[in-house]
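On clarity, I found the account of how folds are encoded harder to follow than it need be. Since the whole study asks how a given chain folds, the encoding of that fold should be made plain. For the editor and my fellow referees, an illustration may be useful. An entry of this sort, consisting of the sequence and the corresponding C-alpha coordinates, reads as follows:

:::
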Amino acid sequence: MALIVDDDPDLRLALRELLESDGLTVGEAPDGKTAIDRLDQGGVDVVLLDLMLPRVSGVDVLRRIADAGLDVGVVIISGHASVRTAVLTTKLGAHDFLEKPIESDRAIAVVREVLALRQSRLRPAPLLDDPSGLIGSSMAMGRLYSQIARAAESDAKVLLVGESGSGKDLTAYAIHRNSRRRAGPFVAVNCAAVPESLVESELFGHEKGAFTGAAARHRGKLEQASGGTLLLDEVGDMSLPMQAKLLRALEEGRLQRVHGEESVALDFRLVCATNCDLTAAVKARAFREDLFYRINVVRIEVPPLRERREDIPELADHLLKSLGQTRPDPTRQFAPAAIGALIAHQWPGNVRELRNVVERLVVLGDGGSIGAREVREAIAVPSGGGEGPEATGLKAARDGLDRAMIVRALAAHGGKIQPAADLLGVNRSHLWRLMKRHGIEVA
Protein backbone atom coordinates (compact mmCIF):
# COMPACT_ATOMS: atom_id res chain seq x y z
CA MET A 1 0.00 0.00 0.00
CA ALA A 2 1.06 3.58 -0.70
CA LEU A 3 0.45 6.15 2.04
CA ILE A 4 0.12 9.80 1.00
CA VAL A 5 0.94 12.19 3.85
CA ASP A 6 0.10 15.82 3.06
CA ASP A 7 -2.13 18.49 4.59
CA ASP A 8 -3.41 19.58 1.16
CA PRO A 9 -6.58 17.55 0.39
CA ASP A 10 -6.49 18.46 -3.31
CA LEU A 11 -2.95 17.14 -3.65
CA ARG A 12 -3.83 13.97 -1.76
CA LEU A 13 -6.79 13.38 -4.09
CA ALA A 14 -4.70 13.98 -7.22
CA LEU A 15 -1.97 11.61 -6.03
CA ARG A 16 -4.51 9.01 -4.95
CA GLU A 17 -6.15 8.98 -8.40
CA LEU A 18 -2.74 8.85 -10.07
CA LEU A 19 -1.46 5.91 -8.01
CA GLU A 20 -4.76 4.02 -8.10
CA SER A 21 -4.76 4.32 -11.89
CA ASP A 22 -1.42 2.50 -11.74
CA GLY A 23 -2.99 -0.35 -9.76
CA LEU A 24 -1.89 0.62 -6.26
CA THR A 25 -3.87 0.55 -3.03
CA VAL A 26 -3.68 4.02 -1.49
CA GLY A 27 -4.17 5.43 2.01
CA GLU A 28 -4.09 9.04 3.19
CA ALA A 29 -2.96 11.00 6.25
CA PRO A 30 -3.51 14.77 6.65
CA ASP A 31 -0.82 15.23 9.32
CA GLY A 32 2.27 13.65 10.82
CA LYS A 33 0.55 12.17 13.90
CA THR A 34 -2.05 10.36 11.77
CA ALA A 35 0.75 9.09 9.52
CA ILE A 36 2.66 7.61 12.47
CA ASP A 37 -0.50 5.91 13.78
CA ARG A 38 -1.13 4.41 10.32
CA LEU A 39 2.47 3.25 9.95
CA ASP A 40 2.30 1.51 13.35
CA GLN A 41 -0.56 -0.61 11.99
CA GLY A 42 1.76 -2.04 9.30
CA GLY A 43 1.03 -2.93 5.69
CA VAL A 44 2.54 0.24 4.21
CA ASP A 45 5.08 -0.29 1.41
CA VAL A 46 5.83 3.27 0.33
CA VAL A 47 5.17 6.69 1.89
CA LEU A 48 4.88 9.91 -0.09
CA LEU A 49 5.73 12.33 2.70
CA ASP A 50 5.37 16.10 2.80
CA LEU A 51 7.85 17.93 5.03
CA MET A 52 5.65 20.76 6.28
CA LEU A 53 2.91 18.98 8.25
CA PRO A 54 0.73 19.93 11.21
CA ARG A 55 1.06 18.17 14.60
CA VAL A 56 4.24 16.25 13.69
CA SER A 57 6.68 17.40 10.98
CA GLY A 58 7.60 15.28 8.01
CA VAL A 59 11.22 15.11 9.18
CA ASP A 60 10.04 13.70 12.54
CA VAL A 61 7.90 11.12 10.76
CA LEU A 62 10.95 10.10 8.77
CA ARG A 63 12.99 9.85 11.98
CA ARG A 64 10.29 7.61 13.48
CA ILE A 65 10.46 5.31 10.43
CA ALA A 66 14.26 5.16 10.69
CA ASP A 67 14.35 4.64 14.47
CA ALA A 68 11.70 1.91 14.34
CA GLY A 69 13.49 0.17 11.47
CA LEU A 70 10.27 0.01 9.43
CA ASP A 71 10.60 -1.68 6.03
CA VAL A 72 9.03 1.25 4.20
CA GLY A 73 10.26 3.20 1.18
CA VAL A 74 9.98 6.96 1.63
CA VAL A 75 9.62 9.58 -1.10
CA ILE A 76 9.73 13.19 0.11
CA ILE A 77 7.29 15.62 -1.51
CA SER A 78 7.67 19.33 -0.81
CA GLY A 79 7.75 22.72 -2.43
CA HIS A 80 9.53 24.46 0.45
CA ALA A 81 12.57 22.32 1.18
CA SER A 82 15.84 23.95 2.08
CA VAL A 83 19.08 22.44 0.87
CA ARG A 84 19.95 21.42 4.42
CA THR A 85 16.62 19.66 4.91
CA ALA A 86 16.98 17.81 1.61
CA VAL A 87 20.37 16.49 2.68
CA LEU A 88 19.03 15.55 6.13
CA THR A 89 16.09 13.56 4.75
CA THR A 90 18.40 11.62 2.46
CA LYS A 91 20.67 10.74 5.38
CA LEU A 92 17.61 9.56 7.31
CA GLY A 93 16.81 7.09 4.55
CA ALA A 94 14.51 8.85 2.08
CA HIS A 95 14.69 7.15 -1.31
CA ASP A 96 14.02 10.17 -3.50
CA PHE A 97 12.62 13.70 -3.59
CA LEU A 98 9.65 15.03 -5.59
CA GLU A 99 9.25 18.80 -5.88
CA LYS A 100 5.85 20.46 -6.12
CA PRO A 101 4.14 20.81 -8.52
CA ILE A 102 4.57 17.07 -8.92
CA GLU A 103 5.07 15.63 -12.40
CA SER A 104 2.81 12.59 -12.84
CA ASP A 105 5.23 10.50 -14.91
CA ARG A 106 8.10 11.06 -12.51
CA ALA A 107 5.95 10.30 -9.47
CA ILE A 108 4.83 6.98 -10.96
CA ALA A 109 8.40 6.10 -11.97
CA VAL A 110 9.80 6.85 -8.49
CA VAL A 111 7.08 4.88 -6.68
CA ARG A 112 7.56 1.92 -9.02
CA GLU A 113 11.29 2.01 -8.35
CA VAL A 114 10.75 2.00 -4.58
CA LEU A 115 8.31 -0.90 -4.78
CA ALA A 116 10.58 -2.87 -7.12
CA LEU A 117 13.50 -2.52 -4.73
CA ARG A 118 11.37 -3.57 -1.79
CA GLN A 119 9.73 -6.51 -3.54
CA SER A 120 13.02 -7.88 -4.82
CA ARG A 121 14.37 -7.48 -1.26
CA LEU A 122 17.61 -5.97 -2.46
CA ARG A 123 19.78 -5.20 0.52
CA PRO A 124 20.98 -1.59 0.81
CA ALA A 125 24.20 -0.81 -0.99
CA PRO A 126 27.21 -0.99 1.33
CA LEU A 127 28.82 2.27 2.32
CA LEU A 128 31.86 3.30 0.35
CA ASP A 129 35.07 2.48 2.17
CA ASP A 130 36.86 5.11 0.10
CA PRO A 131 35.11 7.90 -1.86
CA SER A 132 38.45 8.57 -3.59
CA GLY A 133 38.16 12.31 -3.98
CA LEU A 134 34.42 12.55 -4.60
CA ILE A 135 32.89 15.30 -2.47
CA GLY A 136 29.25 16.06 -1.73
CA SER A 137 26.32 15.01 0.45
CA SER A 138 23.46 15.94 -1.90
CA MET A 139 20.78 13.48 -2.91
CA ALA A 140 22.32 13.25 -6.38
CA MET A 141 25.67 12.29 -4.86
CA GLY A 142 23.97 9.90 -2.46
CA ARG A 143 22.55 8.03 -5.44
CA LEU A 144 25.96 8.05 -7.11
CA TYR A 145 27.67 6.63 -3.99
CA SER A 146 25.06 3.87 -3.85
CA GLN A 147 25.60 2.99 -7.52
CA ILE A 148 29.37 2.98 -7.07
CA ALA A 149 29.11 0.63 -4.09
CA ARG A 150 26.87 -1.79 -5.97
CA ALA A 151 29.06 -1.71 -9.08
CA ALA A 152 32.17 -2.36 -6.98
CA GLU A 153 30.75 -5.67 -5.74
CA SER A 154 31.25 -7.42 -9.09
CA ASP A 155 33.56 -7.41 -12.10
CA ALA A 156 30.76 -6.33 -14.46
CA LYS A 157 31.72 -3.78 -17.07
CA VAL A 158 30.65 -0.22 -16.25
CA LEU A 159 29.72 2.65 -18.56
CA LEU A 160 29.99 6.10 -16.96
CA VAL A 161 27.96 8.80 -18.68
CA GLY A 162 28.26 12.48 -17.82
CA GLU A 163 29.24 15.93 -18.98
CA SER A 164 32.85 16.95 -19.34
CA GLY A 165 34.38 17.90 -15.99
CA SER A 166 31.66 16.23 -13.90
CA GLY A 167 34.02 13.71 -12.25
CA LYS A 168 33.74 10.52 -14.30
CA ASP A 169 37.42 9.74 -13.70
CA LEU A 170 37.01 10.07 -9.92
CA THR A 171 33.91 7.88 -10.10
CA ALA A 172 35.86 5.20 -11.95
CA TYR A 173 38.64 5.34 -9.37
CA ALA A 174 36.11 5.09 -6.53
CA ILE A 175 34.71 1.92 -8.12
CA HIS A 176 38.24 0.51 -8.30
CA ARG A 177 39.14 1.47 -4.71
CA ASN A 178 36.02 -0.25 -3.36
CA SER A 179 36.33 -3.42 -5.44
CA ARG A 180 38.18 -6.68 -4.80
CA ARG A 181 40.77 -5.40 -7.30
CA ARG A 182 41.74 -2.43 -5.12
CA ALA A 183 45.25 -3.83 -4.58
CA GLY A 184 45.82 -3.99 -8.34
CA PRO A 185 46.68 -1.12 -10.69
CA PHE A 186 44.25 1.54 -11.88
CA VAL A 187 45.16 2.37 -15.47
CA ALA A 188 43.44 5.23 -17.30
CA VAL A 189 43.56 6.00 -21.02
CA ASN A 190 42.03 9.11 -22.62
CA CYS A 191 41.01 7.79 -26.02
CA ALA A 192 40.58 11.33 -27.36
CA ALA A 193 44.11 12.38 -26.40
CA VAL A 194 46.09 9.54 -28.02
CA PRO A 195 47.05 10.12 -31.69
CA GLU A 196 45.31 7.65 -34.01
CA SER A 197 48.65 6.30 -35.24
CA LEU A 198 49.64 5.33 -31.69
CA VAL A 199 46.34 4.04 -30.28
CA GLU A 200 46.94 0.36 -31.10
CA SER A 201 50.42 0.39 -29.61
CA GLU A 202 49.20 2.33 -26.56
CA LEU A 203 46.40 -0.15 -25.84
CA PHE A 204 47.84 -3.48 -27.02
CA GLY A 205 51.59 -2.87 -26.78
CA HIS A 206 54.23 -3.76 -29.35
CA GLU A 207 57.29 -5.93 -29.84
CA LYS A 208 60.81 -4.65 -30.40
CA GLY A 209 61.24 -3.42 -33.97
CA ALA A 210 57.51 -3.21 -34.64
CA PHE A 211 58.03 0.26 -36.09
CA THR A 212 60.67 2.97 -36.25
CA GLY A 213 61.66 3.88 -32.71
CA ALA A 214 60.37 0.66 -31.13
CA ALA A 215 63.65 -0.19 -29.42
CA ALA A 216 62.15 -2.58 -26.88
CA ARG A 217 59.02 -4.56 -26.07
CA HIS A 218 56.21 -2.37 -24.73
CA ARG A 219 53.32 -3.64 -22.63
CA GLY A 220 50.11 -1.85 -23.58
CA LYS A 221 47.50 -0.45 -21.20
CA LEU A 222 45.37 -3.61 -21.39
CA GLU A 223 48.33 -5.63 -20.09
CA GLN A 224 49.37 -3.00 -17.55
CA ALA A 225 45.90 -3.17 -15.99
CA SER A 226 46.22 -6.89 -15.23
CA GLY A 227 44.75 -7.65 -11.81
CA GLY A 228 43.22 -4.17 -11.58
CA THR A 229 40.92 -1.78 -13.42
CA LEU A 230 41.19 -0.23 -16.88
CA LEU A 231 39.43 3.09 -17.55
CA LEU A 232 38.84 3.97 -21.20
CA ASP A 233 37.89 7.63 -20.96
CA GLU A 234 36.05 9.27 -23.88
CA VAL A 235 35.56 5.83 -25.42
CA GLY A 236 33.15 7.37 -27.94
CA ASP A 237 36.12 9.00 -29.68
CA MET A 238 37.74 5.65 -30.50
CA SER A 239 37.94 4.89 -34.23
CA LEU A 240 35.86 2.07 -35.72
CA PRO A 241 38.93 -0.10 -36.54
CA MET A 242 40.15 0.20 -32.95
CA GLN A 243 36.66 -0.56 -31.68
CA ALA A 244 36.74 -3.81 -33.64
CA LYS A 245 40.13 -4.79 -32.17
CA LEU A 246 39.01 -3.92 -28.65
CA LEU A 247 35.82 -5.95 -29.06
CA ARG A 248 37.80 -8.97 -30.22
CA ALA A 249 40.15 -8.73 -27.24
CA LEU A 250 37.22 -8.46 -24.83
CA GLU A 251 35.43 -11.43 -26.41
CA GLU A 252 38.50 -13.65 -26.44
CA GLY A 253 40.03 -12.42 -23.19
CA ARG A 254 43.40 -12.31 -24.94
CA LEU A 255 45.47 -9.95 -27.10
CA GLN A 256 48.48 -9.88 -29.36
CA ARG A 257 50.98 -7.05 -29.28
CA VAL A 258 51.70 -5.19 -32.52
CA HIS A 259 53.97 -7.46 -34.60
CA GLY A 260 53.79 -10.04 -31.83
CA GLU A 261 53.04 -13.74 -32.13
CA GLU A 262 52.49 -14.47 -28.46
CA SER A 263 48.91 -14.44 -27.15
CA VAL A 264 48.59 -12.68 -23.81
CA ALA A 265 45.75 -13.42 -21.37
CA LEU A 266 43.80 -10.45 -20.05
CA ASP A 267 42.63 -9.95 -16.48
CA PHE A 268 41.17 -6.52 -15.76
CA ARG A 269 37.89 -4.87 -14.85
CA LEU A 270 36.77 -2.54 -17.65
CA VAL A 271 35.21 0.86 -16.98
CA CYS A 272 34.38 3.11 -19.92
CA ALA A 273 33.42 6.78 -19.77
CA THR A 274 31.89 9.15 -22.28
CA ASN A 275 30.32 12.59 -22.51
CA CYS A 276 28.55 11.80 -25.79
CA ASP A 277 25.35 9.92 -26.59
CA LEU A 278 26.60 6.47 -27.57
CA THR A 279 23.07 5.34 -28.51
CA ALA A 280 22.94 8.11 -31.11
CA ALA A 281 26.48 7.24 -32.20
CA VAL A 282 25.39 3.64 -32.76
CA LYS A 283 22.45 4.80 -34.89
CA ALA A 284 24.82 7.03 -36.86
CA ARG A 285 27.16 4.02 -37.33
CA ALA A 286 29.94 5.93 -35.56
CA PHE A 287 30.09 3.39 -32.74
CA ARG A 288 29.80 -0.38 -33.03
CA GLU A 289 26.54 -1.72 -31.68
CA ASP A 290 28.11 -5.00 -30.52
CA LEU A 291 30.80 -3.12 -28.58
CA PHE A 292 28.18 -0.80 -27.07
CA TYR A 293 26.22 -3.73 -25.65
CA ARG A 294 29.47 -5.30 -24.44
CA ILE A 295 30.51 -2.26 -22.36
CA ASN A 296 27.02 -1.03 -21.35
CA VAL A 297 26.39 -3.61 -18.62
CA VAL A 298 26.20 -1.33 -15.56
CA ARG A 299 25.35 2.23 -16.58
CA ILE A 300 26.04 5.05 -14.13
CA GLU A 301 25.15 8.68 -14.80
CA VAL A 302 27.45 11.17 -13.10
CA PRO A 303 25.40 14.29 -12.24
CA PRO A 304 26.47 17.73 -13.50
CA LEU A 305 27.32 20.32 -10.87
CA ARG A 306 24.20 22.41 -11.57
CA GLU A 307 22.08 19.42 -10.42
CA ARG A 308 23.83 19.26 -7.05
CA ARG A 309 24.27 22.92 -6.18
CA GLU A 310 24.01 22.18 -2.45
CA ASP A 311 27.47 20.55 -2.75
CA ILE A 312 29.09 23.75 -4.05
CA PRO A 313 29.93 25.27 -0.61
CA GLU A 314 31.69 22.07 0.48
CA LEU A 315 33.47 21.68 -2.85
CA ALA A 316 34.58 25.32 -2.94
CA ASP A 317 35.91 25.20 0.64
CA HIS A 318 37.78 21.97 -0.10
CA LEU A 319 39.34 23.38 -3.27
CA LEU A 320 40.27 26.62 -1.52
CA LYS A 321 42.13 24.68 1.18
CA SER A 322 43.85 22.24 -1.18
CA LEU A 323 44.84 24.81 -3.81
CA GLY A 324 45.96 27.29 -1.18
CA GLN A 325 48.41 24.90 0.52
CA THR A 326 51.38 26.67 -1.05
CA ARG A 327 50.06 30.02 0.24
CA PRO A 328 48.37 29.16 3.56
CA ASP A 329 46.19 31.96 4.86
CA PRO A 330 43.68 31.16 7.65
CA THR A 331 41.69 34.31 6.83
CA ARG A 332 41.21 33.21 3.22
CA GLN A 333 37.63 31.97 3.11
CA PHE A 334 34.44 32.56 1.15
CA ALA A 335 32.00 35.16 2.43
CA PRO A 336 28.34 34.04 2.35
CA ALA A 337 27.69 36.36 -0.61
CA ALA A 338 30.59 34.74 -2.48
CA ILE A 339 29.14 31.27 -1.91
CA GLY A 340 25.83 32.62 -3.18
CA ALA A 341 27.51 33.82 -6.37
CA LEU A 342 29.10 30.40 -6.85
CA ILE A 343 25.76 28.63 -6.37
CA ALA A 344 23.99 31.00 -8.79
CA HIS A 345 26.39 30.22 -11.65
CA GLN A 346 25.36 27.56 -14.17
CA TRP A 347 28.80 25.80 -14.26
CA PRO A 348 28.81 24.51 -17.85
CA GLY A 349 32.32 23.18 -17.17
CA ASN A 350 31.19 21.46 -13.96
CA VAL A 351 33.68 20.70 -11.16
CA ARG A 352 36.62 21.31 -13.49
CA GLU A 353 35.41 24.85 -14.11
CA LEU A 354 34.85 25.39 -10.37
CA ARG A 355 38.41 24.26 -9.71
CA ASN A 356 39.71 26.73 -12.30
CA VAL A 357 37.75 29.58 -10.73
CA VAL A 358 38.95 28.78 -7.20
CA GLU A 359 42.53 28.44 -8.40
CA ARG A 360 42.23 31.84 -10.08
CA LEU A 361 41.00 33.32 -6.80
CA VAL A 362 43.91 31.75 -4.91
CA VAL A 363 46.56 32.95 -7.35
CA LEU A 364 45.23 36.46 -7.91
CA GLY A 365 43.78 37.11 -4.45
CA ASP A 366 45.37 39.50 -1.99
CA GLY A 367 44.33 37.70 1.21
CA GLY A 368 41.36 37.95 3.50
CA SER A 369 37.78 36.95 2.89
CA ILE A 370 36.67 36.32 -0.71
CA GLY A 371 33.68 38.42 -1.69
CA ALA A 372 30.96 38.06 -4.32
CA ARG A 373 32.56 40.60 -6.65
CA GLU A 374 35.83 38.66 -6.73
CA VAL A 375 33.93 35.46 -7.51
CA ARG A 376 31.94 37.07 -10.32
CA GLU A 377 35.13 38.52 -11.81
CA ALA A 378 36.84 35.12 -11.65
CA ILE A 379 33.84 33.43 -13.27
CA ALA A 380 33.75 36.04 -16.03
CA VAL A 381 37.15 34.86 -17.27
CA PRO A 382 36.50 32.11 -19.89
CA SER A 383 36.93 28.66 -18.32
CA GLY A 384 36.08 26.33 -21.13
CA GLY A 385 32.94 27.77 -22.73
CA GLY A 386 29.33 28.08 -21.70
CA GLU A 387 27.22 30.88 -20.41
CA GLY A 388 27.28 32.64 -17.06
CA PRO A 389 24.32 33.48 -14.87
CA GLU A 390 23.56 36.54 -16.93
CA ALA A 391 22.30 34.24 -19.67
CA THR A 392 19.48 33.06 -17.43
CA GLY A 393 18.17 36.59 -16.91
CA LEU A 394 18.99 39.12 -14.24
CA LYS A 395 15.98 38.32 -12.06
CA ALA A 396 16.68 34.56 -12.07
CA ALA A 397 20.32 35.18 -11.22
CA ARG A 398 19.43 37.61 -8.41
CA ASP A 399 16.82 35.23 -6.99
CA GLY A 400 19.32 32.37 -7.06
CA LEU A 401 21.93 34.51 -5.35
CA ASP A 402 19.50 35.72 -2.66
CA ARG A 403 18.31 32.21 -1.89
CA ALA A 404 21.82 30.80 -1.77
CA MET A 405 22.99 33.55 0.60
CA ILE A 406 20.06 32.95 2.95
CA VAL A 407 20.53 29.17 3.02
CA ARG A 408 24.25 29.63 3.65
CA ALA A 409 23.69 32.14 6.47
CA LEU A 410 21.11 29.92 8.17
CA ALA A 411 23.35 26.88 7.88
CA ALA A 412 26.25 28.82 9.39
CA HIS A 413 24.15 29.60 12.49
CA GLY A 414 22.30 26.31 12.93
CA GLY A 415 19.04 27.67 11.54
CA LYS A 416 18.83 30.56 14.03
CA ILE A 417 17.06 33.51 12.45
CA GLN A 418 18.53 36.48 14.32
CA PRO A 419 22.23 35.64 13.85
CA ALA A 420 21.55 34.84 10.19
CA ALA A 421 19.77 38.17 9.75
CA ASP A 422 22.69 39.97 11.39
CA LEU A 423 25.12 38.22 9.04
CA LEU A 424 23.06 39.23 6.00
CA GLY A 425 22.58 42.79 7.23
CA VAL A 426 18.77 42.69 7.34
CA ASN A 427 16.26 42.75 10.18
CA ARG A 428 14.57 39.61 11.44
CA SER A 429 11.14 40.28 9.90
CA HIS A 430 12.66 41.06 6.51
CA LEU A 431 14.57 37.77 6.59
CA TRP A 432 11.34 35.89 7.39
CA ARG A 433 9.68 37.50 4.35
CA LEU A 434 12.62 36.57 2.14
CA MET A 435 12.54 32.99 3.40
CA LYS A 436 8.83 32.74 2.62
CA ARG A 437 9.34 34.22 -0.87
CA HIS A 438 12.08 31.71 -1.72
CA GLY A 439 10.42 28.69 -0.07
CA ILE A 440 13.09 28.25 2.58
CA GLU A 441 12.23 26.50 5.84
CA VAL A 442 14.22 25.89 8.99
CA ALA A 443 14.32 22.23 10.00
Q: What stands out?
A: Residues 120-125, 383-394 have pLDDT under 50 and may be disordered. The radius of gyration is 25 Å. The longest strand covers residues 73-78.
